[in-house]
Design brief:
This protein starts with 5 loop residues before the first helix and ends with a helix. It is built from twelve helices and no strands. By secondary structure, the protein is an all-alpha fold.
């Protein structure tokens, strides 16, 4: 464990088990961008400080090697924390920088399951916003059909997410996306919180398309 600066110690004193994501965002807003402080918080190996660390990173300092290290470091966390950290990193840093988006696009066949998750989750997010998607939908669906069953759970979810939003927004592919869910049975019968949409593709696509009158 490295010796932390007084500033890092002061920040850590503000974080405890009752801290919420909104609280972290407020702290990050006060700090603004501070990559060296971010790396100190990351070095604690603790979940909440690492979430804050992601918020104050400097995307220009995120090299391919550093991202690979962050990926390895995230592996020490329990499954749910791992997913939150990698998704948080994508949403708050990787997806906001053109250079890093190019890196994401290279991760389809990465040996890292977390990087493959980011590749697919990013593709899904491009469609989730309802804008004109890239022209790779046919390719993505063929890859999902061929590989989703054999993928790691964290990657399966992101592939399923992508197929779901393709099915919602692109009627041409809707039946095909529903069929993926029926064939794999992924998330069928899964309990979801009130107000949330099930991940099972036939239900997800039907409900989300109806919300949008699509």
């Amino acid at each position: 464990m490295i010796k932390l600066s007084a500033k890092a110690e002061g920040i850590l004193a503000q974080i405890n088990s009752r801290t919420k994501l909104g609280d972290l965002r407020k702290i990050a807003k006060e700090i603004k961008k501070n990559h060296s402080l971010s790396m100190e918080l990351w070095a604690t190996e603790k979940f909440m400080p690492r979430q804050l660390s992601i918020l104050i990173m400097d995307s220009k300092a995120l090299t391919k090697d550093l991202i690979a290290k962050l990926d390895r470091d995230i592996q020490i966390h329990p499954f749910d924390e791992r997913l939150q950290l990698i998704d948080w990193l994508m949403a708050n840093q990787l997806a906001k920088d053109k250079r890093l988006i190019e890196l994401i696009q290279s991760w389809e066949n990465s040996p890292s399951a977390l990087q493959r998750r980011v590749f697919w989750y990013y593709q899904g997010r491009l469609r989730w916003v309802g804008q004109t998607p890239p022209e790779n939908t046919e390719y993505l669906l063929a890859a999902i059909e061929a590989r989703i069953v054999g993928e790691q759970p964290e990657v399966q979810w992101a592939m399923n997410f992508t197929a779901g939003w393709i099915g919602v927004y692109d009627k041409k592919y809707r039946d095909r996306c529903v069929a993926i869910g029926e064939k794999t049975g992924l998330y069928k019968g899964e309990m979801v919180s009130k107000g949330c949409t099930p991940n099972y593709l036939p239900e997800f696509i039907s409900m989300e398309a109806a919300k949008r009158n699509l």
